[in-house]
Fold this sequence. Notes:
Radius of gyration: 21 Å
Strand content: 5-15%
CATH superfamily of the largest domain: NAD(P)-binding Rossmann-like Domain
CATH topology of the largest domain: Rossmann fold
Amino acid sequence: xxxxxxxxxxxxxxxxxxxxxxxxxxxxxxxxxxxxxxxxxxxxxxxxxxxxxxxxxxxxxxxxxxxxxxxxxxxxxxxxxxxxxxxxxxxxxxxxxxxxxxxxxxxxxxxxxxxxxxxxxxxxxxxxxxxxxxxxxxxxxxxxxxxxxxxxxxxxxxxxxxxxxxxxxxxxxxxxxxxxxxxxxxxxxxxxxxxxxxxxxxxxxxxxxxxxxxxxxxxxxxxxxxxxxxxxxxxxxxxxxxxxxxxxxxxxxxxxxxxxxxxxxxxxxxxxxxxxxxxxxxxxxxxxxxxxxxxxxxxxxxxxxxxxxxxxxxxxx
Length: 317
């Protein structure tokens, strides 16, 4: 039996990350990439010294067990709304995450969605693939310019500010934001309360944490305040939005949306999948090789620190 700490990894990771884990720990990988169900998560918590988990793992009190052997969840993500932090604290299980390294990749996906929605790119791509394109026409799939439009950022942290810089300096958009604290004064942006922002922006981009504190933050009432023709972009977490209310608003054709996350992903409501005015991506926010490798190496660094008795580089309170 190995005297190295045992680490169970719940999903396949980039090859360089798996190699680093295998070199440093008694690592149990998931070569077929089958998602862990609740019993398998519970077994992992009971049989490993640490579990490297992902956003697809729902780690609640039952999955943790009453007295887990594992004392660290090294979370391959920034967001932790899939982890019951109170239950972890009660059982003495530490949690780490991977902040900082996915900022640019996620901001790029936010801008991708903004461009796809305003320029109706997904509709055009579907038209071509379906063999329904009959040639160029002066009024075909008319979208809107980004330049001169107003972008409202909900949650002006690293990713929100990176998105704002791209939108303002790259596309000439005016920036509004709502945030608990002031931001870098070098970024030209106007702070306002959320209801006012929802009514003032042409595009609203969500960059706030998920979890109970923000569940349903973008409510039916706030969605109703959006301007006709406005777009809602979500690269944060699906539970931040009242999904049924968003679907109802989209079905009227009054607004549009670009979504990279969903409330019960990977399940996406059929009503949402049918809508032409919704661009839907499969949680691609951090999906670049460079970013996913950097996220994995942050997990490795947190595991190394934990087993060496040092403070976690990226602790989650």
